[in-house]
Amino acid sequence: xxxxxxxxxxxxxxxxxxxxxxxxxxxxxxxxxxxxxxxxxxxxxxxxxxxxxxxxxxxxxxxxxxxxxxxxxxxxxxxxxxxxxxxxxxxxxxxxxxxxxxxxxxxxxxxxxxxxxxxxxxxxxxxxxxxxxxxxxxxxxxxxxxxxxxxxxxxxxxxxxxxxxxxxxxxxxxxxxxxxxxxxxxxxxxxxxxxxxxxxxxxxxxxxxxxxxxxxxxxxxxxxxxxxxxxxxxxxxxxxxxxxxxxxxxxxxxxxxxxxxxxxxxxxxxxxxxxxxxxxxxxxxxxxxxxxxxxxxxxxxxxxxxxxxxxxxxxxxxxxxxxxxxxxxxxxxxxxxxxxxxxxxxxxxxxxxxxxxxxxxxxxxxxxxxxxxxxxxxxxxxxxxxxxxxxxxxxxxxxxxxxxxxxxxxxxxxxxxxxxxxxxxxxxxxxxxxxxxxxxxxxxxxxxxxxxxxxxxxxxxxxxxxxxxxxxxxxxxxxxxxxxxxxxxxxxxxxxxxxxxxxxxxxxxxxxxxxxxxxxxxxxxxxxxxxxxxxxxxxxxxxxxxxxxxxxxxxxxxxxxxxxxxxxxxxxxxxxxxxxxxxxxxxxxxxxxxxxxxxxxxxxxxxxxxxxxxxxxxxxxxxxxxxxxxxxxxxxxxxxxxxxxxxxxxxxxxxxxxxxxxxxxxxxxxxxxxxxxxxxxxxxxxxxxxxxxxxxxxxxxxxxxxxxxxxxxxxxxxxxxxxxxxxxxxx
Length: 731
Fold this sequence. Notes:
Blueprint: E1 5-13, E2 22-27, E3 38-45, E4 58-65, E5 68-75, E6 83-84, E7 93-98, E8 104-110, E9 113-119, E10 127-128, E11 136-142, E12 147-153, E13 156-162, E14 170-171, E15 179-186, E16 189-196, E17 199-205, E18 213-214, E19 223-228, E20 233-239, E21 242-248, E22 256-258, E23 266-273, E24 276-283, E25 286-292, E26 300-301, E27 313-324, E28 329-340, E29 345-356, E30 375-381, E31 384-391, E32 394-400, E33 408-409, E34 415-424, E35 427-434, E36 443-447, E37 455-456, E38 466-472, E39 476-481, E40 484-488, E41 496-497, E42 506-512, E43 515-520, E44 523-527, E45 535-536, E46 546-552, E47 555-561, E48 571-576, E49 584-585, E50 594-600, E51 603-608, E52 611-615, E53 623-624, E54 636-647, E55 650-659, E56 664-672, H1 689-700, H2 716-728
Antiparallel strand pairs: 1-56, 2-29, 3-4, 4-5, 5-6, 7-8, 8-9, 9-10, 11-12, 12-13, 13-14, 15-16, 16-17, 17-18, 19-20, 20-21, 21-22, 23-24, 24-25, 25-26, 27-28, 28-29, 30-31, 31-32, 32-33, 34-35, 35-36, 36-37, 38-39, 39-40, 40-41, 42-43, 43-44, 44-45, 46-47, 47-48, 48-49, 50-51, 51-52, 52-53, ...
């Protein structure tokens, strides 16, 4: 018996990263429309590998043109994606960091004065945070809710904290200090340094000047902290008047751990994520970008991974790091710069290391699009499937009706890239970007089956990005606009801001039956058409975050990060029934991270580690859909189930997986006629004696299909379980 058959491969997806553990280097140095004389990258963030939610992330820094520094950002680790963030009227600017909701922080100079600020999107989105009485101010670090940096009063700098507005400024300057600066934040804590006399001391705050904790290790003349996550902090401390990279493991001076590599004269750690630390070490008088994994012995020299083994560069430095474990692989992204010998200039650099963890198993496939391009399927309803395909140099929104030959390219004329995320009632919701849009700008909209039918939803009042991520009956679309969860009824003027009061950032990912799901305050949540209707679904006791992606029939699905900060990334597929207390953990026993993206009736679909997955309301009900792909899971990798639709007794699931034979991702559709009636052993839609005889034949042949209870063995318990199901009948 096979619960599912692979109906068709809808589309062919993007080439996956190499499975071998190695470092690759991307030179981000801007060369168009003119070549920068210098560029440096400071911050990096990765979005989890979902192409319709932002690709591989964003890097922030600056580039120099005509002797003037311009804040800039790069998208998806590509040099050609460079975008100038210098605000209108600014003489100079720099960007120092980026956060999980794609905000960038730094400064811009107006009237000869540097003003701290943030960019939610492109250059026009600049938001000035400069305190009125300060002479100079800068943002050095930020997360989804706050920013830190420094404000100068005369010649003295004061560590500073903001919450997105100039009026929210908090002076963190410790009593008795001459100067201070806050460099990073996380876990409700701010980290930085304060100068007492000539030397700095590393330290932390918890939102006020009086909360200062001095981290300077005993016997160290000086130290500085560049970041923290609420428990650990990182930076350097002087040992024998040489800077030694290290971290404080429990937030006290006594918890200092020295990570200085053997053979180096100086070292510093500037950033940390997922147990990895990034910074620099001086080797042979030359600064080398490097990373650690928590111990001195784990030190890795990144300079040697630059082109030609690094001999073309005189120095390098790593300033930002992000670790991602979604989709069944672990990937490390490190941003920084290296100084090229000829021509002499700093070049922004992105290093990444990618390794699939776990052993791939077996899979079967079926494609909806016969061309040799990459493709993804994200949604299904009413016999239509939507997603995207890689056509030429961009992704094109795509529509199918169950076969490869039915493929329709929805990319509107004049559009560079597009994606269709949801479908309902013959309408497809998604996002486009025109050839004139900067990388940070996207435009929400919907189609009715053809490229020319596209209707844009972004109003002139919305300066930044908008995305339509879901479609509901009655011509309703949901998504984001200017970083706020949003709802439309097919026109720009119908826009409804779903952002709950007090939340700076929110997103709506799915809609059904007049309800919308998404995230606000870093928590999964549910709306019923207004911002005031927000219901927080984050289960009690979990503080690392959650997201709801899908909703249908009173049920919501998504994930909850069950890690205890400062750890993150222990994502568990989740099911709710309208309240936080109703939360059900769907993570399979012994599995890695998991996500649930869509729900229909009693069934949920998503991914667990590298496998497309299906549940029926409990963790123990987990079914590995990758097993139903042609050739078994050994032929496939990084599979995800993204949409589910039931019509009568037939269940349809869409998603994608990386086909090792073709070297591309392929959009997939699974079909089952017996998902709600496993006793219909031959899956012909009818429960009768033939099912009984077919099961007996499989059972006595010891066929794996007779493992009725999916415990990995064919035995008498399967026989009794089948009998019980057979005599219970079908629903």
